[in-house]
Amino acid sequence: MTGSRTAAPAHQAPRSGRRAATVRRAAGAVLVCAALAAVVTGCQVTDDTRTSERTYMVDGKVTAISAVTDGGDIDIVAADEDGGPVRVTEHYRYADRKPKTEHHLKDGVLTLKAEDCAPVTDSCEVGYEVRVPRTLAVTLRTDGGNIQVRGTTGAVQTDTAGGNIQVRDTTGTVQADTDGGNVSVENVSTKKATVRSGGGNVIVRLTDAPDLVDASTGGGNVQVSLPKGPYAVDARTEGGESSVTVPSDAGSSHKVKVRSDGGDVIVGSAS
Fold first, then answer.
1. d(Cα 204, Cα 193) in Å, to the nearest integer?
2. Residues 256 and 235: beta-carbon distance below 8 Å
């Protein structure tokens, strides 16, 4: 069925303002923290682009991670064991000047930040690969890279200006927002999933009945797969086809809202 066009959900401050704030916060020398021990690997040069990486362990008690980078990818992988240290690898790519990073641990929150190189050179980015205990909550933001989160049980909050987002095998609440990429939330058990893409495709496959799924895209397709219902489903598209095959009950406490401005929307049963 086709419904009236709905307004896009309210957002945070404009991304240009957020980028400026990131520059102010990230500028300066690398912070030194007694809990962090670093190992730096060699640097490679390919044409005009140099790459290098740095790995360090965090031995203090970490309960959450906040990572912000201007253009690199962020990859969070849960370790097999619940405890143990956090292992961070920073991947650098640059032409002239190696970008600066900072990291510190305070009140259980490990903060990772990379500077915005745009005022100096466009050929610069820092990506993060982080191995964490399963129970950590993560808040991740990149202005152009991809984000992956796998195997965690804490809350997941992700935001990228143009990359893809993939969340797999998690059990916490999920919030995923990209301005132009695809979003995939699969094999996830969560009470609440809020997923948005400015123009890509959105896939949500859950293993347990959620309290709320809110999935939308400005131009792609949306596919939501759910376990046995019933659900209160509100599915609308401005330019494609709409298909709802899960058991429906307007009074159900399990709410599903799906929107697309130009693609197909499908709400079906998980196989």
1. 9
2. yes
Predicted confidence at residue 16, as pLDDT, reads 42
Angstrom distance (rounded) from CA 73 to CA 181: 13
- Estimate to the nearest angstrom the gap between the alpha carbon of 222 and the chain centroid: 18
Q: State both tokens at 144.
A: 């152009």
The residues that bridge with 121 in the sheet, in sequence order, are none
Task: Write the secondary structure of the chain as one string of H (helix), E (strand) and C (coil).
Answer: CCCCCCCCCCCCCCHHHHHHHHHHHHCCCCCCCCCEEEEECCCEEECCEEEEEEEEEECCCCCEEEEEECCCCEEEEECCCCCCCEEEEEEEEECCCCCCEEEEEECCEEEEEECCCCCCCCCEEEEEEEEECCCCEEEEEECCCCEEEECCCCCEEEEECCCCEEEECCCCCEEEEECCCCEEEEEECCCEEEEEECCCCEEEEECCCCCEEEEEECCCCEEEEECCCCEEEEEEECCCCEEECCCECCCCCCEEEEEECCCCEEEEECC
Which residue is listed with tokens 């619940």? 82
Q: Distance between CA 124 and CA 83 in Å, rounded?
A: 34
Write the pLDDT tens digit of every residue in 226-253: 998 899 999 999 989 999 999 999 999 9
pLDDT at 115 over 90: no
In which residue are the tokens 């610069």 written?
124
> Which residues, in sequence order, are bridge partners of residue 113?
68, 102
Which region among 44-53, 129-138, 158-167 has the lowest average model confidence (pLDDT)? Answer: 44-53
Are 152 and 134 a contacting pair, CB within 8 Å? yes
